[in-house]
Amino acid sequence: MLPAEAQERAAHSPDQLPPVTVTSPEATPAKRATRSKPTQNRGERTVVRPTQPQPTPADDSGATPATSSTGAGALQPTAASAIRFTGAEVNAVPFTRPGEALEIVPGLIVTQHSGEGKANQYFLRGFNLDHGTDLAITVDGMPVNMPTHGHGQGYADINFLIPELIQSVNVRKGPYFADVGDFGSAGAAGIDYVNKLPKNIAELSFGSFGYRRGIAASSTAVGEGTLLAAIEGTKYDGPWDVPDDVRKINGMLRYSQGTATDGFTLSGMAYSNAWNSTDQVAQRAIDRGIISRLGSLDPTDGGVSSRFSLSGNFAHSSEYGQTKISAYTIRSSLQLYNNFTYFLDNPINGDQFNQLDQRTVSGFDARHAFDWRLGSFETQTRVGMQTRYDDIRVGLFKTDQRNWLSTVREDSVREGNVGIWTDSTTRWTDWLRTTVGLREDFFAGRVLSDTPENSGTAQASMMSPKAGIVLGPWFKTELYGNAGYGLHSNDIRGATITVDPNDKVTPLDRVPLLVRSRGAEVGVRTKPIEGLTSSVALFVLDFDSELLFVGDAGTTEPSRPSRRVGVEWVNQYKPLPWLSFDLDVAYTRARFTDFDPVGDRIPGAPAWVGSAAITFGNETGWFGALKARYFGPRPLIEDDSVRSLESLIFNARAGYRFDNGLRVQLDVINLFNAQTNQIEYYYLSRPPGEPIDGVADRHVHPAEPRAVRLTLAARF
């Protein structure tokens, strides 16, 4: 069947589940981009030519799609949990820090246990993902996760994100997609920026605890294309007894021509940040009055980070299909100072350590999609290659008040990987289509260590098959099934290690460079009444036994095989053009699958998480939002005898948008001033004066108390 005929038949199908359009206070009804399109991805050529919604003056998030290898056209839903959000949806609700913009992803919790310049802590599908492990994040096709990082494998620092420039966030979960490789077993979030703003932006924000932020962004025609420029500056102390003293500056410059399917972009980004940090502290120190709830046990913790990047995206459509290519070079640096155990390891100078990571990352993503027929059946095939090369200087040092004491280890690492993938989607009948895919990943690298015994080379490869099926639509409902194999890479230093870098003598086991994951999902997406879209996904995700490299110690630590079984329920209801409701609930049962007397609970793995939001507003006049986020209790040790607190935090927004483009907005963070914690751990530590062997205790980082932020904005 020809694409035009397929579209005509779909348009007249009485059971078709139409695209859902939802308006936030920052977008008009006509602008709201499609959140789910269950009846597409059937092999028509339109699948690889993304819709290009037209900008409207009221859309503060920008509207023109960015040309990216991970654009909307490549991310049509092929699983019940796959979904795409617009920048307007992201910015419709208030959030504390840039990373929390990703909480638009159903079931994702984003927290912070240290200063505002450090990567966030992520939780998804029963995983404590630390700073990004197994959640693959990209911005305009550039990977954010860093392998063999000084602070932890997969470290994903998203503090350079400018939320006002977000065009879309494309979400996929599970190891079911052939074009998602390392770090993507739990999920993948692809963020694309706009190419053009409908109006220039100027904003100033002032708030509690010394919060100040300014942003200016503008786009203008240059030659046959558009030049987009943006700059952001933030200063923030936070509520802590030791002020964070965040000093962040961030900017972007982009030139683009053409469209998302026939055009190109060239982009440069620059980001710099310096901060102090109040890390998690021992609960007993608060209970005994040694420090306040917002106090610190080492006031010299903090860090400095920077990121500079150049990237380009190219797209071309012809009778032979569509080609997309993205390439990038990133230069990043991090100096991080932490002290989690105080005086446990070194009773004289303390346990503060410095983690260094300086790297240059280069890579590209090339893919091609074309339509053909398998006998008489419409088929779309995609093929692609992804490469990445990291040149890294990474080190771990013992310090005292940020002064160097000794070197635990310092390494020069060169690490690369290549992923080759293909998938094909075939439409067998009006109600049945299937996708099969295959991916092969190759990893190799070299470690040159200051301890010669830990130098060496490592390489590994892994093949990962994928499959999916979609049934329907019947009565505006579709059923989904997905399964696949995935992988997770470990820090390559763990794959070459032979002795403990602390004493240079104790033998250590090496880490397998690649670890297998396996997952499956079944689900349904439906539109039972006008304006309501609801989806349910049941999933299982298994990880093999693995050894993890612990960046905080410079050594390896054994882990155990695990299984997570869960369900996600996602709802969006828009009864009126100016009013919308969202409700997302997720439950996961996370367990180790082997026998061990210590227990089978996975520390830090959340069972229940959820969020609910209401937003209202039109192009002009009053607008507002109220969002609630629930983060359920977690086991902190394997026998479940110590558990974290639960948290329920509300954020609120109210504002007025004038006809002349001015906007006044008031955000209230932690509206009801909940006395809870952002993060909790359980381990040994020793503040001064305690027993030499330390005391096992909760270590907590409190949620910030209620804060107010006023924004004055202009669109011109």
Computed over alpha carbons, the radius of gyration is: 25 Å
Number of helices: 4
Q: Which structural class matches the secondary elements? A: mainly beta
The percentage helix is under 10%
Oligomer designation: single chain
Descriptive notes:
This protein is mainly β and 716 residues long. The protein has 4 helices and 37 strands. β11 (201-207) and β12 (211-222) form a beta hairpin.
Task: Give a quick summary of the entry.
The chain has 716 residues and is mostly beta strands. Helices cover 3% and strands 53% of the residues.
Task: Considering the chains and any ligands shown, give keywords for the structure.
globular, single chain, 716 residues, 37 strands, mainly beta, 5-stranded mixed beta sheet, 22-stranded antiparallel beta barrel
